[in-house]
Specification:
Blueprint: E1 10-15, H1 18-28, E2 34-39, H2 42-48, E3 53-59, H3 67-80, E4 81-92, H4 100-114, H5 120-133, H6 139-148, E5 153-160, E6 163-169, E7 178-179
Parallel strand pairs: 1-2, 3-4, 5-7
Antiparallel strand pairs: 4-6, 5-6
Length: 180
């Protein structure tokens, strides 16, 4: 729906989940453009592309990567970005003063207080996944990675506790980060 009012020339997507790809295929069917969906890793997909993109979007995926791979993502994405392109990131972010361990404790407690309609078993599986697979950065650390990759302008779009949306683009830094 977010793309329905945009002039989209093409869409390339990557995901490890066949179910997510099938869902994306249905959601993107109304776009009047070529849609190419691949089962695989976003970073590997970016590396294998020779084309430029106006937007590179990642949602709740970067926090699964270790810091070096996140930096590699920004370097590779910056190379694949058109001159006026943007990278849009929706993900979990640690607070600036949080260690990973403190974040995991706080985040799991926060989720546990809100996820009241799923079974205790399902909630424990979720917590197990988070504690073993989540490596979120602070917004400042991720912005520094983006800056070192040549993406100098950052915009904080939205925040709901640890869930944040940011855009990163080339260009001259226009002052402090902005919120929309």
């Amino acid at each position: 729906q977010a793309l329905s009012s945009c002039a989209v020339r093409g869409y390339v997507g990557y995901d490890f989940s066949d179910a997510a790809l099938a869902h994306a295929r249905r959601n993107l069917a109304s776009l009047d453009c070529a849609v190419r969906l691949h089962r695989g890793d976003l970073l590997d997909g970016l590396r294998s592309q020779n084309e430029k993109f106006d937007m590179i979007f990642t949602s709740f995926a970067l926090h699964h990567l270790l810091s070096a791979k996140k930096f590699e993502f920004f370097q590779t994405a910056a190379e694949r970005l058109s001159d006026n392109g943007i990278i849009l990131v929706i993900d979990t972010f640690r607070d600036g003063d949080e260690t990973r361990e403190l974040y995991l404790d706080r985040y799991c407690a926060w989720l546990g207080s809100r996820c009241q309609t799923i079974t205790e078993h399902a909630l424990n599986l979720l917590f197990e996944h988070i504690r073993s697979c989540d490596f979120p950065e602070s917004a400042d650390d991720l912005s520094q990675m983006a800056g070192e990759a040549g993406l100098n302008f950052k915009t904080k779009i939205n925040q709901v506790r640890w869930h944040q949306s940011w855009s990163y683009e080339r260009g001259v830094q226009r002052g402090a980060e902005t919120s929309r």
